[in-house]
Amino acid sequence: MLKRFLSYYRPHRTLVLLDLLAAFGASTIAVLYPMVTRYMLSHLKESNWRMVVAVGAVLLGVYLLRMGMNFFMQYQGHVMGVRMQAQMRSELFHHLQKLPFRFFDENETGAIMTRMTSDLFDVSELAHHGPENTIVCGISVILSFVYLATIHLPLALITFLCVPLLVVVGLVTCGKMRAAFRRGREANARISADLQSSVSGIRITKAFTNAAKEEEIFEQGNVEFQEARREGYKAMAQFHSTTTFLMDLFNVVILMAGGLFLAQGSLTLADYSAFLVSTGLFLTPIKTMVTSMEQFQEGAAGFERFIAIMDLPEEQDDPGARPVERMEGHIQLKDVSYSYDADQEVLSHIDLDIPKGKTFALVGPSGGGKTTICHLLPRFYDIPSGEILFDGVPIEQITRDSLRKNIGIVQQDIFLFNASIRDNIRYGRLDATEEEIIEAAKRANIHDYILSMEDGYDTVVGERGVRLSGGQKQRICIARVFLKNPPILILDEATSALDNTTEILIQKALDELCVGRTTLVVAHRLSTIKRADQIAVISGGAIVEQGNHEELLAKDGAYAQLYRLQFRDPEDDGANPERTAPKA
Q1: I need a surface site. Which of 150, 343, 465, 563 has the fewest CB within 10 A?
Q2: 153-161 helix and 269-310 helix, angle to the nearest 10 degrees
């Protein structure tokens, strides 16, 4: 992991080198003051004021230089850390775009966001302060030890022998602290996920007056975070209290050992005084290194969580897969089975043949596997068995990007970005001209409404399109697909959440959208798919019936039963099929 972390310094090696040089210079200058002071006191004579002034001037100049070095470290060092953080964030975001859908099924949005923000912030702090503290403290310890050795070598060695004890105790307590910080990160991710979910669903919470329930869910995560942080602070308290005691113990050892040397006559009172004053040069950087362990643990925990995602395998095209330009639109599913987990099969031995330019409808009870088929066609998930072909070419032999460029999707749950209407429509084809955007909006029956808004196409729709009605969002999505102009279209419950008037308006736009395209329609409202070329009834992951509307009604099977249930007379109990199944 260390080698991987160090690789992020490579693009900034010039800045890193300058930062380390500044740290080296600042740490060297820190040792000068007691050395110069000792020299001046040893050589000072009466009325030798010139030497005092000269020494003061030299120290002032050196400290001005040190101020410049400290400024450089604080400013450019943090800039370097931010650049590394930005690089990691860009790599993580790029990697997230390449991860399979299953990752997003299993990880909440808020938890992912903490990896992008707070985790990487701690990593950037470690990237900045880690090398600086190592250089500054390392040089200070070495130089100060050499200086103390020139005063009295045996006493300096006794002081130095106390360091291993501090290191051992620090390593033991740091292990506990690191584990506690990791649990704290996980708890923080859960809070972020709960908060993101709660804020996104605030309208539902208010509509059902379930604020107390949301507070209960949030408090569960909050208590978990509190407990994790409590453990972390306990470990941190053990670390700091133990190391502080050891530092105080060093002073006691130095005081007693120095006193013994003084009593033996091997150490003068002047040198003893200088040694006591100068021990701070040796102990302070050690204390800094010990206390920086906390920052190291937090940064290391953040980097571990970062690489945990970066090491997840991306979606990969199969060897030999080739991009396709514009498909004809002939779709075949041969003996396709699929399950999201090993315990429950969602699709079982599905066979479908959808000719190019035809409309094929999927109906049946919820959970039967209709939407799963819609997810398999753009290869959001890979099938473990069976075969899916486009124009006779197996799906594995087509690159994912080119496959998805040939498929347009309109779903019940419309997602709009918090951007302008223009940008949301342009998402269908980023290089579209203004005229093409307007034409797509006209074909989706939304252009006139857009012009009636104060900002027209520049109107910002809000998060997930909250400022628009369901029908308006749906038509913007349809305009987006018009702009994309794919040969294959998937309509997954595209009108099920709309009122009848809006449904009729949008259905006209969808009918135009379907012209000349191979269309797969998933619908509960059978009125929207009566004119489909073929209809398949899916139940329990299997096709139980297939045919056109008239054929399926004539079979008087599952489709006819669904049809009677939807179109029965409210005053009729549904027992008379002649009355409850109107003519197509």
Answers
A1: 343
A2: 30
Helices and strands, counts by H and E, the chain: 21, 10
Identity at 307, one-letter amino acid code: I
Rounded Cα–Cα distance for residues 485 and 325 (Å): 13
Residue 396: predicted pLDDT: 93
Read off the amino acid at residue 353: D
Looking at residue 39, what is its pLDDT? 67
What is the residue whose two structure tokens read 């506990």? 176
pTM comes to 0.72
Spacing of C-alpha 12 from chain mean position: 24
Q: pLDDT for 516-528, tens place per residue?
A: 889 998 887 777 7
At 51, list the tokens.
């030497």
CB 483 within 8 A of CB 426: yes
Q: Between the CA atoms of 132, 134, 138 and 140, what dihedral angle is there, to the nearest 10 degrees? A: 30
Amino acid at 315: E
Contact in structure between 370 and 307 (CB atoms under 8 Å):
no
**What residues pair up with 536 in beta bridges, in sequence order?**
362, 546
In DSSP notation, 332-366 reads: EEEEEEE-SBTTB-SEEEEEEEE-TT-EEEEE-ST
Q: What are phi and psi of 200, to 5 degrees?
A: -65, -35
Q: Which helix (H) or strand (E) holds 544?
A: strand 542-547
Tell me the per-residue pLDDT of 340-357, one tens digit each, with 9 for 90 and over.
Answer: 877 778 898 999 999 999
**410: β partners:** 491
* Interatomic CA distance for residues 191 and 232, integer angstroms: 17
For tokens 């930005």, name the residue.
Answer: 86
Contact indicator for 121, 73 with CB cutoff of 8 Å: no
Instruction: Tell me the backbone φ, ψ of residue 266, rounded to 5 degrees.
Output: -85, -5
Which of 482, 481, 483, 490 minimizes the C-alpha distance to 354? 490
Averages of pLDDT over each 10 residues, the chain, 584 residues: 82 86 81 68 62 78 87 85 87 89 82 81 82 78 82 85 75 70 73 70 67 78 78 77 79 85 82 76 75 75 87 90 92 91 83 92 86 91 92 93 90 82 90 92 88 90 80 86 90 68 72 85 80 90 91 90 73 43 39
C-alpha span between 155 and 145 (Å, rounded):
10
Residues 375/328, Cβ–Cβ less than 8 Å = no
What pLDDT shows up at residue 391? 93
The amino acid that residue 430 corresponds to is L
Q: Is 40 exposed, middle or buried (0-12, 13-18, 19+ CB in 10 A)?
A: middle
Cα–Cα distance for residue pair 250/141, rounded to 1 Å: 15
